[in-house]
Amino acid sequence: MNFSLTKILFKSDESGNIDSIWYENWVSLKKNRSAMFGLYMILFFILMAVFAPLIAPFDPLTQNIDLRKLAPFTGAHILGTDDFGRDLLSRIIYGARISIVIGFFSVAISLIFGSLIGLISGFYGGWFDRFAMGIIDIMLAFPYILLTIVIVALLGPTLLNAMIAIGIARLPQYARVMRSSVLAEKSAEYVEAERSLGVSNAELIFMSILPNCLAPIIVQATLGIG
Question: For the domain with range 20-225, which CATH number is right: 1.10.3470, 1.10.150, 1.10.443, 1.10.3720?
Answer without folding.
Answer: 1.10.3720
